Structure formats: C-alpha cells, structure tokens
What we know:
Layout: H1 2-12, H2 22-25, H3 30-39, H4 53-60, H5 64-72, H6 76-100, H7 102-162, H8 170-185, H9 189-197, H10 202-220, H11 222-225, H12 228-260, H13 266-274, H14 278-287, H15 289-321, H16 347-350, H17 361-382, H18 388-414, H19 418-421, H20 430-445, H21 452-473, H22 479-509, H23 515-564, H24 577-605, H25 609-635, H26 650-661
Helix pairs in contact: 1-5, 10-12, 10-14, 12-14, 12-15, 14-15, 18-21, 20-21, 20-22, 22-23, 23-24, 23-25, 24-25, 25-26
Amino acid sequence: MLDMMASPLTNKLGGSYGETNDSSKNGFDLGMFVGDLAFEDDASSDVVSLEGLQQELEECQNDDVVANILSKGTKLREYTKGVENDVRQVELDSIQDYIKESDNLVSLHDQIRDCDSILSQMENLLSGFQAEIGSISSEIKSLQEKSMDMGLKLKNRKMPMLAPARFVDKRSVAELNLATFVEDIIVPPRMVDIIVDREVNDEYMRTLEMLSKKLKFVEVDAMVRSSKALKDVQPELERLRQKAVSKIFEFIVQKLYALRKPKTNIQILQQSVLLKYKYAILFLKEHGKEVYVEVRGAYIDTMNKVLSAHFRAYIQALEKLQLDIATSSDLIGVEARSSGLFARGREPLKNRSAVFALGERINIIEEMDIFFLAYQLSMFRRRIPCLDSYLDKINISLWPRFKMVFDMHLNSVRTANVKTLWEDDVHPHYVMRRYAEFAASFILLNVQYGDGQLELNLERLRMAVDDLLNRLAKMFKKPKLQTVFLINNYDMTISVLKEAVKEAVKEGQEKEDQEKEAVKEGGKAQLTQRHFEELLKIGMNTFVEELLLEHFSGMITFVKTQASEDPSSGSEKLLSATEVEKLVKDFASSWKNAIESMHKDVMTSFSNFLIGMDILRTALTQLLLYYTRLSDCIRRVSGGSALNRDLVSIPSIMFEIRKYSRIV
C-alpha cells in the first residue's frame, strides 16, 4: 500500500528520490510530503514544531483511514474541512434530535434528581443504622466482657465447693469464710435506697427478706457480735429496721382503713393486697414485736366491726325470708318469747299470727279432699270398698290427735299467766290475734261439713279467751285504758272474723249443691262475730261516757240528777239561777278546748281510725244531747233568762261536730 501511495508523489516531485536504494523504492518520504502540505497554502502561519512527527507517522502507518487518504492524494486541509463539515452536520442533526427528545430528557432529568434524593435519604438512613449497629456492637461487646467476668467469678467461687477436700487448703477456706462474712454483713446502697425511698411493692418485699437475713445473722452469731466490723454496720442496720417497721405500719394501716369503707370487697382486698404482702407482717413479728401487736389488734378490731356489720345485714335478710313454721310450742296462750339462732327478745313471735292463719294451706287441704272424695266415689261406683276401712281408721286416729292439740290451745288460754303476757300497750294483744286467726281458719274449714263437736270446742275456746282478755284489761290501772284495750282487741277480732265469714259464704255459694249448708255455717260463724260486736258496742258506750265525764263531769251529773226526778210528782226541786250559772259559764269557756282534747285522745288511743272516728262522733252527739237537756233545765229555772247570754248556741256545737266529722 505504501508503494502505491509513493508512486504519484514521485512523479510529482520529478524523481527527487530516484536514486534511492531498493528499500527506498518501496516507500515515500513522509516528512517532505507533510512539509509541503504545511507550507503550500499558508506561508504566513506560525512555525510548527515537527518534533515527534516521525514517531506519530510511524504510529499512523498502519491506520487504514490515513492510508486511504494518502492513496487518493486528497489534500489534508480539504479532507479536514470535509470532516469538519460532516462533524458540523452531525452536530446539527444531534441538536435536532436533542430538541425532539427534550421532553423525555427533562423527564429523565427529573427522575434522576428524584432518584438522587431517594438515594441520599437511604444513605442517611443507612448511616444511622450503621451508627446504631456500631453502638449495639459496642454494648454487646461490653456485655460479653461482663458475662465472661461474671462467669469467671462464678467459676472461682464454685471451685472450692467442687474441689475435693484434700485440694482445699486453709487459705481457700479462710477466703471463702471471709467472702461469706462480708457478703452477709455489708449494707448495699441499693438496699438503703429501696428501704428508705421506694414504695412498698414486690421489690420492697424481696429487700425486706435480705434485711431480715442480715439482722438475724448479726443477732445469732456470737463471733459476729464481737467483730469490729459490726460496730460500723450495726447503726445502719438498726436505722433501716426502724424505717422498714415504720413504713410497713403505715402501709398496713392504710389498707385496714380501706377495709372499713362501705361496699368494699373484703375478699379481693385480702387476697390481692394483704395476702400478697404477708411477709411484711412476718417481718414485723420478727423485728418489730410491739408494732406487730398493734397492727394485729387493729386488724382484729377492723374485721370484727366489718364482719359484724355483714352478719347483722345477713341475719336481717334471713329474718325477712324466715318462714313461720308451726311447732308444738306455738300455742295461743303461750308467752311470745323466741329462742334459736335469730332470737332477739320478744318481737319475732308476736307477729307470728300466720302460724295460726290458714293462708294458702287451704288450697293443699282442698286438693287432698278432692282427691280422696274422687277416689271414694270411683271405688263406690265400682263397688270396691278396699280402702274404706283404712280411711275410716285414719279419720278415727286423727280426731283424738286433733282433740289433744285443741285442748292444748284451750288449756294454754285458761292457765295463761297474765303477768307475763301483759304489756303496757292498749293496742291489740298478740294472743287475741292468734285466737282470731285460729277461729277464722276453723270457720273456713268447717263451712262444708258442719261439725257440731268442733263448734262446741270453738265456743269453749271463745269463753276462755273472753276471760283472759278481761284479766289482761284489769292489769291497767285506769278504767279508761281498760276500755280502750278491750275495744281495740274486739275490733281486730271482728275484722278477722268478718273476712273469714265472707270467704266461707263465698266458697259455699260456688258449690250449688252445698249452698244451704254453707249459708247455715256462715250464720253460725256470724254468731261468734255478733258476740264480739255486742262487746264492742258496750265498750264504745262505756268509753264515750268515761270520755265525757272526764271533760264535762259537772254538767253530766247535773243533767242526770234532774232527769232522775219525776216532774209529774210535784216534788220537783226548784232550781235557782246561781246553782246553774257556774255550770253554764264553765261549759262556755272550755267546751271547744275539751272537744279538741277529746279528738286527740281518740286518735291516739285506737289502732283502727274508723272506729276512733265513730267513737268521736258518738261522743259529740251524746254531748249535744246532754247540753240540750241542760238547756231544757235552765228554762225551768227562775230567772234563767239572765243566763241566755252565757249559753252556747246549738248551731255552734253542731258546727264543731261537723268539722271533726269531716276529718274522716
């Protein structure tokens, strides 16, 4: 190739190199060619150093492009310009392409910037992780060193115990004993901090155990007590003991106060607090006996009050649910004294009239009657009298038992001790209520049978009750109180019997086939009721007279005296105005206050409001009659017209009577 490039150049230069050797004929002088190119068109250019050109041409000798240019004889400057034009064109085309892809380049730029930001954050995060990992690595290294150190110490401590006795010398034994002594006698700062400043919790309990061991170690070992080290440690141990005892005392007292609060769940407080911190009490027992005795006394007192209150509430609730179950000692005339677990004086049995009342038990008895009657009817229709003799024997055996029980009630009334039964109270007596309920129950049970023997026994019981009631009434010192007591008991008995008679007639009328018998038995029951109604009427009249005599005795005595004389006999005593004037003036000045006092007396004396108002109306009506008769007597008095100005008008008295009657 170089020969081909050198041939035209040789012709152009006119054989300047014709005399060269064989080796020169196969090449060309590049230095002269380059020099010609350098100075042919630009003679005015600066001097160019050709140093190193030969080396560069030798390096380019094997370049295909340069060889191609030289073979064609193209001028380098022209070729250079062509190359520059091509480069410029390529540049322009590149610019156009860049402009076309500008949006994509902007987007790419933004993505690169975002990626750079994310990578920067990741770099910071990884740097932080690296720093933390370095810190953890240093901590792990420190812990590893401590673990190795502790393991070494543990190994050194175990060595004397694990080694055979022949390998343990006296020095090792002394070191072990000294280490044990120091460990048992020293007071660590952490122990002081927990005992003095920390709250009572699980850690405090563990610290108390450590303190207790140290205190026992100091107290038990005689050699320790004689050691000089104890003189330095013992004051600190004593102060810690006192502080621990004081702190435990305050803690336990607070919990005991919590037990006294109402609606406190004692069981939860005992299990979660007191039982959890039981070692605190053991510590007081071992190292603070005086405080322990005080705490124990406070706990006993607290639990005594708390449990007493709970048991009282529980017993009261049980008493509300307590059923009235009849026993052999529940007789009509027996003193109402209770006994047993829930006994409290005389109160409970006073209100046990339900024992003598029939109540819901009548339903059970009726069901049994229906069953046996249906059974007997069925057996009668089938002509199978297999159980008739058995039922007859039951009836025969039941009647003596009933008679015995009834006689027990009768004898309890007849032989009752009035002094023990009597109470200073005019309200109905519990014995009378027992009798009323007892008699009413038999009236209901006997309504369909009409047992004459039972009626006779009830009549005997009524007579005994009348006698006992009169004896109880005589225990009152004032006749007025005796009358009030009788009225209240009669009224209560009548109320109970009325209800029983009403139920008996109603029950009998529901069964048409026994209607006549029911009405008959109801009439017999009404006889007992009428007996007490008559007694009540007598007692009410007696009380009215006693009440009026208490407030208007002078007027009533005068009117009765005048009424006892017969005007037709001609022996009537002439009355003077002076004899009557005092009565008229006394009545005019006190009659309103007397009526008000009568009203208060009646309202507080009788347990039945309606009976009290009926008695008050009767008393006021009787008062009006007495006053009317007094007015008639005054008309017969000579000079009686002078007393008219002091007389109270009848309408005024009627107005007061209506005023108190409207209270009903």
